[in-house]
């Protein structure tokens, strides 16, 4: 466990950041799940929920929860999946 005063403060801060990061990651996962599920059933619904998924992915990348290239890859794969389902 942390010994110094600064280390204790840093630990408290990291616990607070952890909560935000977990919430951001959960939002990201939920948004992508909605799109993937809709691709199988209702294509119009998938297209409508795509911007929300992109927003969640971009926010996760901006805050450093995922890396920029990982965000771009996720967005690309979602868009490609919808395009494949249309064809």
Structural class: mainly alpha
Number of DSSP-assigned strands: 0
Poorly predicted runs: none
Oligomer: single chain
> How many domain regions?
1
Shape: elongated
Rg from alpha-carbon coordinates: 17 Å
| Count of helical stretches | 3
Strand content: under 5%
- Report the order of strands and helices: HHH
Q: For the report, how would you describe the main beta sheet?
A: none
Please report the distance between the alpha carbons of the first and last residues: 57 Å
Question: Helical proportion?
Answer: over 70%
Instruction: Quote the average pLDDT.
Output: 94
List descriptors.
mainly alpha, 87 residues
Fold topology:
Blueprint: H1 5-41, H2 43-62, H3 68-86
Provide a brief overview of the structure.
The chain has one domain (25-86). It has helices spanning 5-41, 43-62, 68-86. The chain is an all-alpha fold and 87 residues long.
Structure description:
The chain is built from 3 helices and no strands. It is 87% helix and 0% strand. The chain has one domain (25-86).
